[in-house]
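Structure in, sequence out. Go:
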């Protein structure tokens, strides 16, 4: 049946509002070593680092406008911090070591994060210190902020995508941050997990409508996901609503999120592949959607509705001040050569900033309340998902072409040798990180500070 007519003819069964989850809210995150079966019972469990004992850490769920208050206890042998990716919060709560707070010390250090949640959407948390190793060992989790009136769905689910480099015993290969990965595409692993385990199948029921919150928590892997036999709707990117549209393939660079409405319109007892084919010669099946042998819950679906907008200030493009930021370096590019830059491979406006540089002189100073149009130029042969803290921005153009939809993001995936313009209102005071979310790139030069004052 023609999809358009199918939608027009829809007289869908009304969906009940989602029942609130019964669990009490999480108030503590404790970081410690743990063991987890990532690849199934045929192999040993893997030594990981975890929040509250599991990878990913607990799903933190709040309502828009609520206040988050979480005590962090660090029982690891390494210092850490927690960054709340995508949340527009006060600078002191942003979790960047030495810039916004001292590190949370190894073996018992504590820190309490407390801030309001202005935007509904799909966000996540992860360390911002020694990130290639700490995230690579399993430290990340979902932070979900529900709309005041969430759109009705049958299930609201999170898929945290992560990728691991494992040996034959399913142990982590411990060459985190090596020069080879750092100067090329970053640490791309050999095992992809969904919510901390390889999943063969994902059980669904014919006729159900699922809100799927996809989070790319991988150090470096980019995903291009398609759902065979289905035409899901994209309703939000990086937690921010988009005009709902059906997609063939959704692209997720490290750090990025997508909210998808998956209508289970295939037949009972059927199975359909979810494919990741971002790297063309290395396409693989992520898992299979496996339909229960049960009567469909409904026979047609209404078009996905637009989520309410978040209270984000809209930049005035006519008055916007222009800035230009050039990302350079990497293999086959202009890598830093001076002796003091040993081990650094990437630059922002010609300068490499090491992760352990605590001086962080700002790359740019923006005036609070003013609109900016920032051209980001990728002068390298590699992909870079560029993330700005404390703000969200509109991607206005790519390679000189205006984009048809002006949507909000906190991370822009730059293709090799490409450029994009982003627009934002600098409305959050403080020193904010701007960096590549390929964590090996971030740690070897591709980061900078943007000051808003
Ligand atoms: Cu998700 Cu600065 O990071
Ligand atoms: Cu990068």
């Amino acid at each position: 049946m023609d999809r358009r007519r199918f939608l027009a003819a829809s007289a869908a069964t009304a969906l009940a509002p989602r029942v609130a989850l019964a669990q009490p809210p999480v108030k503590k995150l404790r970081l410690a070593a743990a063991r987890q079966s990532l690849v199934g019972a045929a192999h040993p469990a893997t030594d990981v680092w975890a929040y509250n004992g599991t990878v990913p850490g607990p799903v933190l769920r709040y309502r828009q406008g609520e206040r988050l208050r979480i005590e962090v206890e660090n029982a690891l042998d390494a210092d850490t911090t927690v960054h709340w990716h995508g949340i527009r919060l006060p600078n002191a709560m942003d979790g960047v070591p030495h810039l916004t707070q001292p590190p949370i010390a190894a073996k018992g250090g504590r820190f309490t994060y407390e801030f309001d949640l202005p935007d509904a959407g799909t966000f996540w948390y992860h360390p911002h210190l020694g990130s290639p190793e700490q995230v690579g060992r399993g430290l990340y989790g979902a932070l979900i902020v529900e709309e005041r009136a969430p759109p009705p769905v049958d299930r609201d689910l999170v898929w945290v995508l992560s990728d691991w480099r494992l040996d034959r015993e399913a142990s982590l290969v411990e060459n985190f941050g090596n020069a080879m990965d750092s100067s090329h595409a970053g640490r791309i692993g050999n095992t992809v997990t969904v919510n901390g385990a390889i999943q063969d199948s994902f059980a669904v029921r014919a006729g159900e409508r699922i809100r799927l919150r996809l989070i790319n928590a991988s150090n470096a892997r980019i995903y291009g996901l398609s759902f065979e036999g289905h035409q899901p709707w994209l309703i939000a990117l990086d937690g921010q609503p988009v005009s709902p549209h059906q997609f063939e393939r959704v692209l997720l660079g490290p750090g990025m999120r997508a909210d998808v409405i998956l209508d289970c319109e295939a037949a009972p007892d059927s199975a359909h592949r979810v494919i990741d084919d971002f790297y063309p010669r290395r396409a693989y099946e992520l898992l299979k959607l496996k339909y229960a042998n049960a009567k469909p819950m409904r026979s047609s679906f209404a078009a996905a509705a637009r989520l309410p907008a978040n209270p984000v200030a809209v930049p005035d493009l006519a008055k916007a001040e222009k800035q230009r930021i050039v990302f350079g370096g990497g293999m086959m590019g202009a890598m830093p050569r001076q002796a003091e830059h040993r081990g650094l491979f990437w630059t922002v406006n010609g300068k490499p900033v090491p992760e352990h540089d605590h001086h962080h002189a700002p790359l740019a100073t923006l005036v609070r309340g003013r609109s900016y149009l920032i051209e980001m130029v990728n002068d390298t042969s590699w992909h870079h998902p560029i993330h700005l803290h404390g703000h969200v921005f509109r991607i206005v153009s790519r390679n000189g072409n205006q984009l048809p939809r002006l949507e909000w993001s906190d991370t822009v995936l730059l293709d090799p040798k490409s450029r994009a313009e982003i627009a934002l209102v600098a409305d959050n005071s403080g020193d904010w990180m701007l960096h590549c979310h390929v964590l090996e790139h971030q740690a070897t030069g591709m980061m900078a500070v943007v000051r808003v004052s």
